[in-house]
Amino acid sequence: MLIEHDPDVRAVEAALFAAEAPMTAEQIKLYVGESVDVGAALRTLADHYQGRGIELVCRAKAWHFQTAPDLSHLLRREKAEMRKLSRAAVETLAIIAYHEPVSRAEIEAIRGVQISKGTLDVLMEADWVRPAGRRDVPGRPLIYATTPGFLTHFGLETRRDLPGLQDLRAAGLLDPVDDVLDGMDFGDDEEEAHDALARAESDEEN
């Protein structure tokens, strides 16, 4: 069936087109009504826009239209200023992405060095990292996780799409410091490790 003749698909398309931010299927249903099969409409639209100038994509269970990656350069009127992340920020972002949610003390335990508050601030200002509550251990340290913006920026649908550590090592993107990520495993002593790290972070904050 052509989408031009399907009122449900057209309604979902209109809701997405007018949205200021990506929307989940549940949010779309609030606009188009409970009777609409939003999932089927989204699949129809995704197929319809595949290979066109704009495409419908899903990032972290939220849907939005975006310019086809191979055409994005046509819309750039000014050269974007590239800001290179520091090594500390790159390592911190990688640790959070692969081990989230993690506290500052856990990040420092993996990296082997302390991180400045500014490092996390930079990642949060970029909308790649967010506070994700507090761990339910003594000291209740703040924990961090990645955001939907992180997935969108790196073209990932979910964190399961992150390359494996073996893939990164094979590509030459891991050095001996980064290999610590591979060996970080709390195992059966996870709660004990979290308690120790929480106490360390609590002492630091106090």
Automatic annotation (TrEMBL):
Ranges of compositional bias, category Basic and acidic residues: 194-206
Keywords attached to this entry: Cell cycle, Cell division, Chromosome partition, Cytoplasm
Region described as Disordered: spans on this chain: 186-206
Any matching Pfam family: SMC_ScpB
Recorded superkingdom: Bacteria
InterPro entries given in the database record: ScpB_csome_segregation, WH-like_DNA-bd_sf, WH_DNA-bd_sf
Cited NCBIfam families: SMC-Scp complex subunit ScpB
Protein name in the entry: SMC-Scp complex subunit ScpB
Organism expressing this protein natively: Sphingorhabdus arenilitoris
